[in-house]
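Supplementary notes for students who missed Thursday's class. We covered one full example, reproduced here. Read the sequence, then the structure, then the short commentary at the end.
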Amino acid sequence: MFRERITRHYPSLSPSFRKVADFILASHQRAAFMSASRLAKHVGVDVATVTRFAQQLGYEGYIELIREIQESVLKEMRESRAPVLERLETAESPITQTLWRDWANLEKTIQNISLEDAREAMEGLRSARHIYIVAEGVGIGLAMTAKSYLKMLKADVFVLGQGAFDTAMELKELTPRDVVIGIGYTSYAYAATKALEIANRVGALSIGFIGQPDCPIATQAKLLFACSVTEEGYLPSPTGPGAILFAFIYNLFMSDPDSYNRKLVQFQEYYANLTEGTARGDEEVVDDLLGLF
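Structure (token representation):
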């Protein structure tokens, strides 16, 4: 898909190419009906730049790129995104407008996910010996949440977000049977990018979840899930990366429900034993625990 190609090449694009990339990523529905000359004029570059941009992405030329964008727009029209856009335009407050914008972002993410890559990622997570989740800044919260869920099925799940020393200490055990997940919302995800580079060198599966096209994780992830966001700078929306990562974890649970249920019951038993005689132990906690997992 054109979005994935742009995202993978974005860090290496020239300033002129980025003008074209930014416009297509932000307004692909408008771009779909533009000739090369009209798009060039709109973003302030020459026609040759638009053609070379398409070729750098791996297309034969601009016509092949624009046809793919048009196919994407037709698919979106078939799936009736209009109601969400309508609600976004008529939102009564900035808060509801932000929420509807996230809804639209999530719809875009769903439409653009590669089912083939999703299947490969699921199989990799299912068979992984160790799972390493590398994140920085705001991504660490999502990484810790993912670990909390995954520990119900996988014993060896590690969050690496404490700096180069601790990350290197854990990754020294990395093998081709492992999975390294990089989470990045912004262009500051350098440690996660380096960890994915190490994973590729070792032969482990590298998976990236990102929220902006300039996130460097895109250059190293074998399987990349680029989520749609509208906010820029240091405050990109966490909705897309969080939702898609949870979707993988949930389906990992559902792929082996018997194992999940056995471990959940065992967890409940041990928790009850550990809290026996305490105020918490005197409460009915089974329903609460089921709600947590």
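Commentary. The longest helix spans residues 94-112. The chain has a mean pLDDT of 85. If anything here is unclear, bring it to office hours.
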